[in-house]
Q: What sequence folds into this?
């Protein structure tokens, strides 16, 4: 049974106060109590604890109905957080303050034809060195680092259990990364779907809701799920593999080894295949993934009928897949993100809204809102920085699962 | 944000103690503390509260390492609970003790060609009168009643928002039921998927796990989901409509108004259609649903190749649908139930295990167990009796969401 303990509650109160300080920038204890619906006594305890740990400090005085009250904020000095987003073609390291401001970013290209773990690890290390150099800070100011890699990864052991894009099985990635990175802190490894979900919970479009689904559209596709404000990891951190639910029985081969998966139609290589089917001689067929998506955007801008048809087919597939999510989970919010979505959102959003409506049960459709995830920068690096913040809390004697 | 309060914890502790007393029959405070992992102080508080409310009493003395200790049990007298399962063709009312022993049951047939709410309400009332007569008890001993109806229902308002089988929209069922039933207690209305899930949590195959999915196979099909021991309702109590996820794009018309839904292939009318496609002249084609399923079982027993093909096609469809659930939610346990499954489980289970394996991601497959839901009687009536127990707790001043 999952009976929740007093320490769970304590962690969740701390999470609520921290999140509120992050979103509001500055607040009095009274304002924190109102915003979090915690008691003023609880807020006072949590704030004292965070002040003792050096994570929260007083930045000014407010006055509420005659009572002077301190304005509190996250203490941004001196620690920094790093979030890294590793995908097939790049490793992006971003530097954040403790209050999750995006400060610097550095991207290293990865050769997607070389699947050696050492190559990927070297790319990550170069990206991290790059962002530290750009920020002109020394490695000992890094309080925590979170690194997202595709596929199934176990945060507890740091093992990449399976990464279909690289054909990795049981790669102990954390040990290799820690050896190469030469930081004073351990690495939190996770999956991009988990990262975008925590980013949406902490920094996304308004506070958490009953059931929230974040849809990541890129080379691979998948969803992150949060229910009642908590990340759904599944039994072995593998929940959200929506990209490998079946769209077409005995359909296109998928890199997971099965056939007809959503990803085989909606992921960028799947879109390339759709274009090749529609127009084998189209100039965009042979382009590399990011150039291909740029060509799709260009074609849509220029009213290329082939690109319009490609978009329609991709959106239709996407709508079938999202309709299933709506009917199975009855979410109140579906938020889209990912590099492919970012490049094509102007065209995707209006079509998709109508198409999902045709696939969803009426009652479930009535309560769901489909929207782009509005986070200033890469939600994967932001989410991994949030996991890194958790490590900082733990080392300050405040053990806490942030979600 | 969903920050959990001290009263949530209190309710969950009460739930854990009650569930443990229900499953173990009799236990000392010390045994309850060990089994629930609650502190002995918490167990002592919760037990005192439940004793004050008359729900738990001392039934004997045990001795643990020299210390005498009272053996506790649920106080079964005098209240009874009723759980009602309403489906297209029947209304079954079952009577339970407060410790959820199944005492009596009465079924009224329903005419599935008459979709008037008054007809269904009359059938429910007759089933309830029938079970009270069989038990020879007066209506004032009924401490709570839960009634499950197909489709989307809102427990808070008692409205059947949409029932595709009856073509109901916004029917205020609770008012009509309460007027007709003439009991002293209010009616808890819910959906069979929610009922089977709480039944699995309280009475199913072992304690709750990380992510549990209960699959209900009958005229309609759907799943119930529990994560970390808590029922997933979705935003408007409509989570679990797996029967209306898409199996075949532009496939068979479904009674929900869409096409190609899982239910259109795996629900009993869908199986009837598959048989009609395979062998239009087969003697079972024109049978009523329950006779049809009996004929399928008989044909499989007699090695009828047409029925074997029908079973294979149905299991293949089921496996596609369940593979999607495994890949999306990464559950550790999938439990099957429902009247169709009950009749055909000997044939379904071995085929299904292999077929699901072909549809699931390896890592997610490794951790999931596919098994029949082992609850002695109808899990829908049992689940609705658990919701009724919640009403009893609330009236004793122990407000509690049982899951």
A:
């Amino acid at each position: 049974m999952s009976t929740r303990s007093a320490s769970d509650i304590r962690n969740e109160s701390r999470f609520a106060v921290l999140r509120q300080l992050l979103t509001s920038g500055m607040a009095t204890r009274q304002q924190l109590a109102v915003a979090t619906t915690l008691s003023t006594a609880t807020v006072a305890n949590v704030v004292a604890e965070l002040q003792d740990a050096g994570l929260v400090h007083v930045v000014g005085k407010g006055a509420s109905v005659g009572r002077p009250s301190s304005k509190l904020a996250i203490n941004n000095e001196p620690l920094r957080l790093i979030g890294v987003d590793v995908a097939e073609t790049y490793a992006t390291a971003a530097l954040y303050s403790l209050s999750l401001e995006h400060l610097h970013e550095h991207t290293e290209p990865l050769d997607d034809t070389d699947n050696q773990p050492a190559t990927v690890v070297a790319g990550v290390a170069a990206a991290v060195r790059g962002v530290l150099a750009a920020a002109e800070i020394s490695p000992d100011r890094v309080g925590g680092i979170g690194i997202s890699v595709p596929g199934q990864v176990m945060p507890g052991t740091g093992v990449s259990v399976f990464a279909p894009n690289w054909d990795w099985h049981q790669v102990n990635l954390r040990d290799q990364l820690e050896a190469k990175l030469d930081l004073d802190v351990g690495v939190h490894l996770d999956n991009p779907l988990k990262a975008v979900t925590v980013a949406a919970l902490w920094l996304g479009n308004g506070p958490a809701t009953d059931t929230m689904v974040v849809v990541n559209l890129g080379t691979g596709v998948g969803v992150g799920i949060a229910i009642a404000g908590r990340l759904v990891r599944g039994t072995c951190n593998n929940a959200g593999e929506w990209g490998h639910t079946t769209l077409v029985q005995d359909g296109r081969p998928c890199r997971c080894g099965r056939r007809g998966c959503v990803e085989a139609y909606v992921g960028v290589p799947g879109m390339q295949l759709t274009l090749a089917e529609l127009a084998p001689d189209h100039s965009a067929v042979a382009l590399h993934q990011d150039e291909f998506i740029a060509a799709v955007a260009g074609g849509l801008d220029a009213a290329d009928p082939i690109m319009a048809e490609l978009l329609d087919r991709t959106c239709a597939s996407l709508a079938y897949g999202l309709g299933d999510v709506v009917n199975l989970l009855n979410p109140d919010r579906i938020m889209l993100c990912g590099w492919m979505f970012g490049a094509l959102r102007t065209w995707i959003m209006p079509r998709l809204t109508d198409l999902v409506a045709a696939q969803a049960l009426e009652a479930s459709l009535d309560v769901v809102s489909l929207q782009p995830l509005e986070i200033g920068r890469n939600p994967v690096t932001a989410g991994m920085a949030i996991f890194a913040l958790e490590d900082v809390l733990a080392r300050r004697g405040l053990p806490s699962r942030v979600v």
Remarks:
- The longest helix of chain A spans residues 305-329.
